[in-house]
Amino acid sequence: MKCFRCQRDIPDDARICCYCGTRQASAPAPQRRRHRRPRGTGTVWKDARNKGLPYIAVAADGTRIGSYKTASDAVKALDDVNARRIAPERQAYTLADVYERWKVLHYPKITRKAQQTYTNAYNKAALLHGRRIMELKTEDYQQVLTRMMADGASRSLCEKERQLFSQLCQYAINQDIIHTNYATALVLPDPSAPKTRVLTSQEVQKIKGMADDPRLGETARIALVLIYTGMRLNELLQARRENVHADERYLIGGEKTEAGRDRVIPLHPDIMPYITTWLAGNDTEYLIPSKYGLPRDHNNVRKSFNSLMARLSIEGVTPHTCRHTAATKFAASGLPPEITKQILGHADITTTLNIYIHPDIQSLIEKSSRISWA
Predict the structure, then answer these.
(1) Residues 57 and 181 placed together within one structural domain of the fold
(2) CATH code for the domain in which residue 351 is found
(3) Which of 28, 235, 271, 355 has the most CB atoms lying inside 10 A of its own CB?
(4) pTM over 0.85
(5) What is the pLDDT of residues 295-350, one digit of tens each?
(6) Are strands 250-253 and 55-58 parallel, antiparallel or unpaired?
């Protein structure tokens, strides 16, 4: 055959022209030299047994980062680990790993009840526990919420689930494992119409009539104090005798938020007889103690409250209705919104105005009719 460059006769099986040194077209391509990764940056190797994800990325210290479909994906993952310079084992953290590390820091700061709420939310995300948090995106978290909504979970439970995911994502961001909080885009069920109402004046009078009842009188007095002060049930049950200033008609109490703790709560003259009776009737540190000298269990008080309402044929109310009733009465009495906010212990006045105050329709009509347009 002839060399395709110099056109001289060369042997038929020649791969290189003996005259000009040109590689012939029939010769096989030269074996490319395999690229070697820099020392200390890890390696990528192929596992022929794994047909779906054959390429394995391994960090410099031997930690396996993951399996990938193509070699370029594995190299990219390995380069990403090296670029961010974080421990490869943290790249392999699952949602369960992040949760266990997060709760060590977060649980000591919250109550036992709040801890149980987060634990329940975590258990509902069981299908994600074994997944690496680097791989989880919004749609993965949304699957959990979608399943909860299909099972009839309330919006508040879905909000708690989203809150947990957000906390875990933020922890992973702080550890430089991920760079986006994927929980912020989660879709929750539409909020239902508020079911809270306020007690009418007639219903409050019914409760006053039960104040001396031998079985439910104590519960009626607790309900009246809640109505007149706007306190949360647990705030009243946790109130201490030393914080009650009967002569000045106020007490120091509160919980939940920074604005709500240690606030001044005025005591109306109508409920002062109940307060003085409680102060004189025990020598424990709590205003309304149980028979063991400890704060009363709020679940037992709620059950007794329900019995009282059933006895009076008052429907659709809870102890928290008393707080809404107080806020509405404060507003109707002309108390400035900022004062109502301080008494209730809200951090934001919009919470007071938009959620807790339920104006009476007839009152709105009467007040609007007094406006002079002349």
Answers:
(1) no
(2) 1.10.443.10
(3) 235
(4) no
(5) 899 899 999 999 999 999 999 899 989 988 888 888 888 888 888 888 887 766 56
(6) unpaired
